[in-house]
UniProtKB/TrEMBL annotation:
Top-rank taxon: Bacteria
Lineage, highest ranks first: Bacteria, Bacillati, Actinomycetota, Actinomycetes, Micromonosporales
Pfam families the record matches: DJ-1_PfpI
Name of the molecule in the record: Protease I
Family as reported in the entry's similarity comment: Belongs to the peptidase C56 family.
Organism: Micromonospora nigra
Keywords: Hydrolase, Protease
Ranges for domain DJ-1/PfpI: 8-176
Length: 182
């Protein structure tokens, strides 16, 4: 039987420069499993996604990070893209929003360059995770056990390396969000 996310609310935290496929496919997966999804970003309005380095679609923001309450959500997804997590990690409200999920033991999914924001939130120490290969040094220096695997789960934290890993990543975040707090 497939995991169901009926009654669950999942936040996606993203900014301009988010890798489109890493936002769209996980969002579709959790919505198809029954969750309500909200896009949280740095400011109201819309964000611009990218397909690698080419501009792509825009997506309407539901709530600004400064106004977002992690207590309203059952899980969090941090898509990648090179610029997106760099903007997020420089914003204290976004970093605090991310840290609140870890403090509450709520499941978090992160892919590609997304772990940069986790480093800034100081939540990777002692955790096993993966990412885009160029983040390895940053994650190891922040105390993480970095591995090169398709999908890694560590006490509610789900991580993957790249868009090719999306099928495994999407299945695992749905499973972890269905399990709830860790």
């Amino acid at each position: 039987m497939a995991a169901t996310l009926q009654g669950k609310r999942i936040a996606f935290l993203a900014a301009d420069g988010v890798e489109e496929v890493e936002y769209v496919q996980p969002r579709e997966a959790v919505e198809q499993a029954g969750a309500t999804v909200e896009l949280v970003s740095l400011k109201p309005g819309a964000i611009r996604s990218f397909n690698h380095l080419d501009q792509s679609e825009t997506y309407d923001v539901d709530v600004a990070a400064a106004d977002a309450d992690a207590g309203r959500y059952d899980g969090l997804v941090l898509p990648g893209g090179v610029a997106n997590p760099d903007f997020l990690r420089a914003d204290p409200e976004a970093v605090g929003f991310v840290k609140a999920f870890f403090d509450a033991g709520k499941p978090v999914g992160v892919i590609c360059h997304g772990p940069w924001t986790l480093v800034e939130a100081d939540v990777v120490r002692g955790r096993r995770l993966t990412s885009w290969p160029s983040l390895r040094t940053d994650l190891v220096n922040a105390g993480a056990d970095w591995v090169d695997e398709e999908v890694v789960t560590d006490n509610g934290l789900v991580s993957s390396r790249r868009p090719d890993d999306l099928p495994a990543f999407c299945a695992k975040i749905v499973e972890e969000f269905a399990e709830g707090r860790h």
